[in-house]
Specification:
- The chain is α+β, with helices and mostly antiparallel strands.
- It has one domain: RelE-like (YaeB-like fold, 2-Layer Sandwich).
- Helices cover about 30% and strands about 30% of the residues.
- The chain is built from 2 helices and 5 strands; from the N terminus they run E-H-H-E-E-E-E.
- A 5-stranded mixed β-sheet has the order 1-5-4-3-2.
- A hairpin with an 8-residue loop joins strand 2 and strand 3.
- Helix 1 packs antiparallel against helix 2.
- It is globular and about 40 Å long.
- About 25% of the residues are buried.
- The model has no long low-confidence stretch (mean pLDDT about 90).
């Protein structure tokens, strides 16, 4: 049985911001990047441990997958995956606020 994948409101805002930023240059590429990120999220339903532990945090329940230059950061629960952030790889985690607590 697969995990339920839930996107936090903050992660959805991250996706919207990423799409808006990329769409300034290419609406097509923005759609392709967002589709790939969403596909990565869907994959977590069957393979929630596929991502690595976020090295800066060292918490086994916080993991990440990379999609292009973005980090899809999620928290593992008993039967649920909560996507808490989608941030650019060069952005500091501290700038994402308290999402990881």
């Amino acid at each position: 049985m697969g995990y339920e994948v839930v996107w936090s409101p903050e992660a959805v805002e991250d996706l919207e911001s990423i799409a808006e930023y990329i769409a300034r240059d290419s609406a097509f590429y923005a759609g392709a990047v967002i589709a790939k990120i969403l596909d990565s999220g869907r994959m977590l339903a069957d393979f929630p441990h596929a991502g690595r532990v976020v090295p800066e945090l060292g918490d086994e329940t916080l993991r990440e997958r990379f999609v292009y230059s973005y980090r899809v950061i999620y928290r593992l629960r008993a039967d649920r995956v909560l996507v808490v952030a989608v941030i650019h790889g060069k952005r500091l985690l501290e700038s994402a606020g308290d999402r990881f607590r």
